[in-house]
Predict the 3D structure of the following.
Amino acid sequence: MGKAELVNELYARLKKASFCKVRRFKRSEVITNYIQHRDVLHCLLSGQANLVHYTRYGEEQFIEKYHRYDYFGDGFHDVILNNEYSVIAKRECTVFSINVAELKERPEYHHELLLFMEMLQIRIREISSHNTILIQRTTRGKILEFFSLLSRRTLTREFELPMSYTEMAVYLNADRSAMTRELSLLEKEGFIEKKGHRIRILTQR
């Protein structure tokens, strides 16, 4: 099953369970803080949210963007003191939250636990794909690997970027100016066509 099917089935089965809850969040509200809320899986039923990291100097750094049917929690990140992560609603959101520790202790929810494990496998593959992008040695290599990933996900060479260019630079761990230059060169050299956030891959590497 895909992410949407997994999240919908888990929600249908667990929405009345005592260890689960559904909450709505307004724009800019904090959905969760990974230091304070541990061992909880949050599923985004609607809206959009960002994972941000706060440095010891109080600076906010964008890490990831979440859309409908994405899920997140402290289990996917190395959370320690002075390394604080928070998820902030970027639009009005509806979030389904599951206390994973309690789910694991309830044998009557065996099937739901299997769904949860399948969701973890998908998330691990996503993290692995991101790491494949990050290990590319050049900014161009990161951009092309990212575009190749989006092309495989959409099964087409033309797709809409799922984030702003500023967020893309953070996601690629690339300098914003250097990334902009490489995008212009890729377009000039005939590798891609770019119109706003719409990208079309013209030729393979």
The mean pLDDT is 90.
